[in-house]
Amino acid sequence: MKVGAPPRLELVGVSKSFPGVRANDSVNLRVKPGEIHALLGENGAGKSTLVKMIYGILAPDEGQIVFDGAPTRISNPRAARRLGIGMVFQHFSLFEAMTVLENIALGLDARLSQRDLLAEFHRVLDAYRLKLDPRRIVSTLSVGERQRIEIVRALLLNPRLLIMDEPTSVLTPQEVEQLFETLRRLAASGCSILYISHKLHEIVALCDTATILRGGKVVGTADPKRENPRSMAEMMIGASLKEIAKPAERSFGPPKLETLDLSLPKPTEFGVALKGVTLCVRAGEIFGVAGVAGNGQNELLSALSGETPSAAESVILLGEGVGRLSVTERRELGLCAVPEERNGHAAVGEFSLTDNASLTGRNRMDFVSFGLINSGKATSYAAEVIGAFTVKATGPGALAGSLSGGNLQKFIMGREILQQPAALVVCQPTWGVDAGAAAAIHQAIVDLAARGSAVLVISQDLDELLTLSDTIAVINLGALSKPMTVGEVSIEEIGLLMGGVHGDPAGTAQMTEQLHAHPA
Amino acid sequence: MRIRLEKRLTPSRFMLVATPVASVLLTMALGAVIFELLGFDGPDAIYQTFITPIVAPYKWVDVLTKAAPLIIIALGLSLGNQAKIWNIGAEGQYVIGALAGAGVAFAMPQAAPGFVAVPAMIVAGIIGGMAWAAIPALLKTRFRVSEVLSTLMLVYVAMQVLNYLIGGPWKDPNGHNFPQTPPFSATQSLPNVIPGTVVPPGFVVAIALTLVFWVLASRSVYGFSVRTVGAAPSAARYGGFDAARTVWSTLMISGGMAGLAGILEAMSQLGQINLGFPSGYGFTAIIVSFLGRLHPVGVFLAGLILAVTYVGGQVAQTAVHVPEATAGIFQATMLFLILASDILVRYRLRLVRAAPRAATAGAPA
């Protein structure tokens, strides 16, 4: 790298406020040409706000953005792309029913002929040794392949700076390795990469420099190759990490929650069918279900919680077939669940915490008599949850939507755990939750199991499952692998099961036929 | 300087109550200006429309008579609106309820005693309204037909049913060929007002139902389930509340209430059913429901206000010679204003200087 070359991107004193929160506070950042620069921070640290300003989605309140040595004002994403800034978002914006090439054409500012576009497309694939069939229909692609579309779309613009927002959260370990190779090749060709993540081992493996954000401020810059992950983590959360206290010698009681050949059809066009899921969670056991997003995790949770009924004997609670029972009946028997989506599924944002306590606790905690809810009991239960799980809220009257993600998740977990369920099923218990709250939630899950409940944890975070679970299985395309004992199984093995034969190369031909048979 | 809308951290309770009041006051101010511009005495038109019915005791019976059906219907509609199930066909259910009650009256012996005839007709009225609302409920739960369309369209079908019955099979043989039913007998009728008071029997029912709905909406598991289905359908399913059952129950309740209002109106005010029976209460009740913020007590007060505009509209017609449409204009203005002012509950207005730098001023860190 030439000494004296201006940094590719420099932020000087950039600030941004929203009502009630200062998302970024005088942030300084310097990304050199060809550098892979990590932006590290917990959820809510201000990473997304910062990159949205760089990509022109938000305007900074104060401060200066300097690109290639020239101060610039980036008024919208199109202007950002013209400067040579590309971005790959965490959530893709793709049309499921269209082909790869059609999706790419839709996302381009310039109008290219089909032939020119195809030539450009293949140039990018060859240059970065990516594999992607331009004629495949998106709905038949795996998540890794879908992400590749977004990457190719960004690379077609020959970017000088590529922003990647939490790119690995949906990938299998093998797909992550492929992505890293592409990014290294891209950096070697001179493109700078701003890599957003909270996963420390990835940053150690990939990045040259790391800027750490906390509470909207830069709290440090580190060289990940020299720093150890633990010290970076402590910089990130601003406190020392707590270890989960898990009893070493654990023995399990009789089975409490089982499924037996649980099969369900697709709930919607793009949903996933469950195929003969069989599992058994014993008293005191934590059973982890790993898998890439969209492989039937939500369908499995709905089948267990009772939101989707199934054959009576396909879900067994304490030896009794409950597949036909309603959500309420299952809860009364001691089966509680926490779905992945906090807002609008596990909790109602515009309701008070008291009402949210009634949502699932009203029968088990005995709030109801003669069809009327005893609001005194509901309020004191909500207060109990707030106290026991150190939820930061103004009180039981606070609206659920006014809580931060981590605090709301603690409230929801606490609401279920204090009901002393015989079996608890949780999906993504620490998704988008800060490290402090995540540790508290993990400890609560371990403690619940220690008291003799059966706990099923569905998560995409393999690290989380390997820390928590006693037994682990992988869900892929709606089928569950054989259970494996944690400690005896390698990450590579689990990764291979997660990948499976994901995506369906034959699907495009079939879908094309269907589309022609039923013109829309 | 420009005005910016800023999302509130929590919805404003003050605005929740203040905006309906402001809507009524603003309607009066706008109305005064409009009628002044049209060449009428604007302030007097407002005085006659909004104030005379309240200060003139001889108008009280009229106000309470109009308020009763508005409140009864709007109580039912508010429950459905909380679940975001929009029954805008209460007018049709009101008509069919009255016809069902009348059918029972004509089928029973004229000599049947009042304590049999009156309850039988009321129950038939409720069932008639429910049956009419069952069609949209079935269409929605079975075929996902929007209840907004089906309930509204069934109003016009109900009108045709009414026209057919009073011009054909149920036509009064002694009615000089007017399209109307024979009068109900004495034992099949209710008095205009409870003797010795200015209170119509329907208004007593409205008071009682307000209390029932208040408990139902704010304290019961059922009311909670309705609110949850409206606020977050997935959360409702997770909490054990069935969306289809909520569609059915809210439409049955709002249909039943409309039918009840219809038969009470027929039994106590008209004593028969004629072409003038559908008077728009079912539509005006939608305004009552929103002006009352879907809360039973709010609905009760809003029903009184809208009844005042009905009665006052007629007063203003004779006193200031404003057109017949006056009351309707005021009612519509009120609905627009209340819906428009809803945004103030969730957002606040803030004056900011044009420079973006000012955006940080005052925001707590």
TrEMBL record, chain A:
<keyword id="KW-1278">Translocase</keyword>
<dbReference type="GO" id="GO:0005524">
    <property type="term" value="F:ATP binding"/>
</dbReference>
<keyword id="KW-0813">Transport</keyword>
<keyword id="KW-0067">ATP-binding</keyword>
<dbReference type="InterPro" id="IPR017871">
    <property type="entry name" value="ABC_transporter-like_CS"/>
</dbReference>
<dbReference type="GO" id="GO:0016887">
    <property type="term" value="F:ATP hydrolysis activity"/>
</dbReference>
<keyword id="KW-1003">Cell membrane</keyword>
<dbReference type="InterPro" id="IPR050107">
    <property type="entry name" value="ABC_carbohydrate_import_ATPase"/>
</dbReference>
<keyword id="KW-0677">Repeat</keyword>
<dbReference type="InterPro" id="IPR027417">
    <property type="entry name" value="P-loop_NTPase"/>
</dbReference>
<feature type="domain" description="ABC transporter">
    <location>
        <begin position="257"/>
        <end position="502"/>
    </location>
</feature>
<dbReference type="InterPro" id="IPR003593">
    <property type="entry name" value="AAA+_ATPase"/>
</dbReference>
<dbReference type="GO" id="GO:0005886">
    <property type="term" value="C:plasma membrane"/>
</dbReference>
<protein>
    <submittedName>
        <fullName>Nucleoside ABC transporter ATP-binding protein</fullName>
    </submittedName>
</protein>
<keyword id="KW-0762">Sugar transport</keyword>
<keyword id="KW-0547">Nucleotide-binding</keyword>
<dbReference type="Pfam" id="PF00005">
    <property type="entry name" value="ABC_tran"/>
</dbReference>
<feature type="domain" description="ABC transporter">
    <location>
        <begin position="9"/>
        <end position="240"/>
    </location>
</feature>
<dbReference type="InterPro" id="IPR003439">
    <property type="entry name" value="ABC_transporter-like_ATP-bd"/>
</dbReference>
<comment type="similarity">
    <text>Belongs to the ABC transporter superfamily.</text>
</comment>
<keyword id="KW-0472">Membrane</keyword>
From TrEMBL, chain B:
<keyword id="KW-1133">Transmembrane helix</keyword>
<keyword id="KW-0812">Transmembrane</keyword>
<feature type="transmembrane region" description="Helical">
    <location>
        <begin position="273"/>
        <end position="291"/>
    </location>
</feature>
<protein>
    <submittedName>
        <fullName>Nucleoside ABC transporter membrane protein</fullName>
    </submittedName>
</protein>
<dbReference type="GO" id="GO:0005886">
    <property type="term" value="C:plasma membrane"/>
</dbReference>
<feature type="transmembrane region" description="Helical">
    <location>
        <begin position="247"/>
        <end position="267"/>
    </location>
</feature>
<dbReference type="Pfam" id="PF02653">
    <property type="entry name" value="BPD_transp_2"/>
</dbReference>
<feature type="transmembrane region" description="Helical">
    <location>
        <begin position="298"/>
        <end position="316"/>
    </location>
</feature>
<keyword id="KW-0472">Membrane</keyword>
<feature type="transmembrane region" description="Helical">
    <location>
        <begin position="63"/>
        <end position="80"/>
    </location>
</feature>
<feature type="transmembrane region" description="Helical">
    <location>
        <begin position="328"/>
        <end position="347"/>
    </location>
</feature>
<feature type="transmembrane region" description="Helical">
    <location>
        <begin position="198"/>
        <end position="217"/>
    </location>
</feature>
<feature type="transmembrane region" description="Helical">
    <location>
        <begin position="92"/>
        <end position="112"/>
    </location>
</feature>
<dbReference type="GO" id="GO:0022857">
    <property type="term" value="F:transmembrane transporter activity"/>
</dbReference>
<feature type="transmembrane region" description="Helical">
    <location>
        <begin position="148"/>
        <end position="166"/>
    </location>
</feature>
<keyword id="KW-1003">Cell membrane</keyword>
<dbReference type="InterPro" id="IPR001851">
    <property type="entry name" value="ABC_transp_permease"/>
</dbReference>
<feature type="transmembrane region" description="Helical">
    <location>
        <begin position="118"/>
        <end position="139"/>
    </location>
</feature>
